[in-house]
Design goal:
219 residues; mainly beta; Fumarylacetoacetate hydrolase, domain 2; globular
């Protein structure tokens, strides 16, 4: 667990787990050469991987392929189990901008043997959090423009309306299998356009109605 101050929110939260949805945009699944999932693809990241906008993403010395993945992030505001999708928004406290940094070489190798992805996803500084806004702002998380620039070049540009599984379906699915607790973060998947970064690259991610994050890759 890790107690953090969420950017843009007054309250501090204890993050117990970071739950991520993989391959939740059709075109992203295609660019990875993967089949379209019949159910959400779920993996987790540890709170120890969290950094914030303005901090440095450390390029691990055990990889040769560090990739960015821009995502809409959900902050769970109250504990719930077996939440119906019609009630899902009652359990969300805020929406944020996040980066799920991935070691693509490790991920590809692990997937080839049917092994878990943890090494490719859970390394220090792999979870970057930017601005958050409380749900009371009234934004529709299922219709937000999402963008990422690397060194001022636009690399990702999509809309959350193109997610295979909507925000409420994700909450319903996850909470059926395990309890969602206050402070948990849910990464909802990345659109097409993922790619590699190098040391000294500058990343800027932005989601309409929410805000942005900035990070530089360092050694």
């Amino acid at each position: 667990m890790k107690k953090i101050k969420i950017p843009g929110l007054e309250k501090e939260y204890i993050v117990g787990k970071i739950v991520c949805v993989g391959k939740n945009y059709l075109e992203h699944a295609k660019e990875l050469g993967d089949s379209i999932p019949e159910k959400p693809v779920i993996f987790m990241k540890p709170p120890s991987s969290i950094i914030f906008s303005g901090q440095k993403i450390i390029y691990p010395d055990f990889t040769k392929s560090l990739h960015y993945e821009t995502e809409l992030v959900l902050l769970i505001g109250q504990t719930g189990k077996k939440i119906k999708k019609e009630k899902a928004f009652e359990y969300i406290s805020a929406y944020g901008v996040g980066l799920d940094m991935t070691l693509r070489d490790w991920q590809s190798e692990l997937k080839k043997f049917g092994h878990p992805w943890e090494i490719s996803k859970c390394f220090d500084t792999s979870t970057v959090l930017g601005d958050f806004v409380p749900k009371e702002k009234g934004i529709n998380p299922n219709n937000l423009e999402i963008k990422l620039w690397v060194n001022e070049e636009l690399k990702q540009h999509d809309n959350t309306s193109n997610m295979i599984y909507s925000v409420e379906k994700i909450v319903e699915y996850l909470s059926f299998y395990f309890t969602l607790e206050e402070g948990d973060l849910i990464f909802t998947g990345t659109p097409q356009g993922v790619g590699e970064v190098k040391v000294e690259d500058k990343l800027i991610a932005e989601i309409s109605g929410i805000g942005r994050l900035e990070a530089v890759v360092g050694s």
